[in-house]
From TrEMBL:
It comes from the Bacteria. Residues 4-58 form the HTH lacI-type domain. InterPro entries: HTH_LacI, LacI/GalR-like_sensor, Lambda_DNA-bd_dom_sf, Peripla_BP_I. It holds the Pfam family Peripla_BP_3. This is LacI family DNA-binding transcriptional regulator. Keywords: DNA-binding, Repressor, Transcription, Transcription regulation. GO terms for molecular function: DNA-binding transcription factor activity; transcription cis-regulatory region binding. The keyword Transcription regulation applies.
Length: 338
């Protein structure tokens, strides 16, 4: 006879994998009627949970899954370090799911959590990998989780976010105060909340200053250095070149600086460059990069603490915590050329 798995229990009970996993691990968090359906399905099928890696007494693995789009990104590397430190201090190990921005990989890692290989997850993506039934309680259909960086369009879960529009608006306002009006924007992928928020802030700052928005100065990137290189090459081919370039992350800003220097542009005398994130390398590139700083250590700590509190039984209302940002002025920005 074929071995019965957690997917079979979900099918028999007509619930999600997350609900089965939650019922087996923390039954007190599941509504009584749903909990009983799952337990009846377990009894009917003869299901035996896989004990590998699981504490026999607590029914927990002691693992937290971190699902993140790109571990090579310096910002994400610092984020993971903060998560691991906080998790370790609280007795948890971290499983790392590097999705490489692939929806299929995201789903695979979520499936691992729902199948019981981790107690909960930190989800740094805005794509929704869950099949939500609006007629059923939301939390019973989700694993224990916290969302950050790219906001997930789901209410009722804990989130740690940055006000991207406000942060970008302040960066552009700083350039405007320096006399710049031809300000280019090298965005992130426009299917992400972070890029849309930053573009919104860019547009708002220009509109409030009465500066006409030139769509030729807005080029979509992907948060990688090569995108900054390619976008800057396009901007330099314009008849009316920008006097400042706002890149939506530091990696792309570093790519922009390399292209400008290779073409004998002086930074900031000819063209100013501003980034976003304040990664470690931003202080070592020459000229040192002006950037919007995100508190990456705080983000990692808050996400992990929120998740662990849930895993330890917190029934507090889910909250969205907004972290602060700060404009860090260095040497890559200066007055607009006359």
């Amino acid at each position: 006879m074929a071995k019965v798995g957690i997917k079979d229990i979900a099918r028999i009970a007509n619930v999600s994998l997350a609900t089965v996993s939650r019922t087996l691990r923390t039954p007190d968090l599941v509504q009584e009627a749903t909990r009983q359906r799952v337990l009846d399905a377990v009894a009917e099928s003869g299901y035996k949970p896989n004990r590998m890696g699981m504490n026999l007494r607590t029914q927990r693995t002691g693992n937290i899954m971190v699902i993140i789009p790109d571990i090579t990104n310096p910002f994400n590397a610092d984020l993971i370090r903060s998560i691991e430190e906080t998790a370790s201090n609280n007795g948890y190990a971290v499983l790392l799911g590097d999705t490489q921005s692939s929806p299929e990989r995201e789903q695979q890692y979520v499936d691992l959590v729902e199948a019981g290989q981790a107690d909960g997850m930190l989800y740094f993506s805005g794509r929704n990998p869950f099949n939500i039934n609006p007629d059923k309680p939301l939390l019973e259909q989700l694993p224990t989780m916290v969302n950050s960086n790219e906001e997930l369009d789901l209410d009722g879960i804990d989130k740690v976010l940055l006000d991207n529009a406000k942060a970008a608006s302040e960066a552009v306002q700083y350039l405007l105060d320096l006399g710049h009006t031809r300000i280019a924007a090298v965005t992130g992928p426009m299917n992400t909340k972070s890029a849309n928020g930053r573009l919104q802030g860019y547009r708002q700052a220009l509109q409030q200053a009465g500066v006409e928005i030139d769509d030729k100065l807005i080029i979509e990137g992907d948060y990688h250095i090569d995108a900054g290189v390619e976008a800057t090459e396009k901007l330099l081919r314009l008849k009316q070149r920008p006097t400042a370039i706002f890149c939506f992350n530091d990696d792309m800003a570093i790519g922009a600086i390399n292209v400008l220097q290779a073409n004998d542009y002086r930074i900031p005398e000819d063209i100013s460059v501003i980034g976003f994130d304040d990664i470690l390398y931003s202080t070592y590139v020459r000229p040192a990069l002006t950037t919007v700083s995100q508190p990456v250590q705080e983000i990692g700590r808050l996400c992990t603490e929120k998740l662990i509190a849930r895993l330890r039984g917190s029934h507090d209302e889910p909250t969205t915590t907004y972290v602060s940002h700060k404009l860090v002025v260095r040497d890559s920005t200066g007055p607009a050329p006359k």
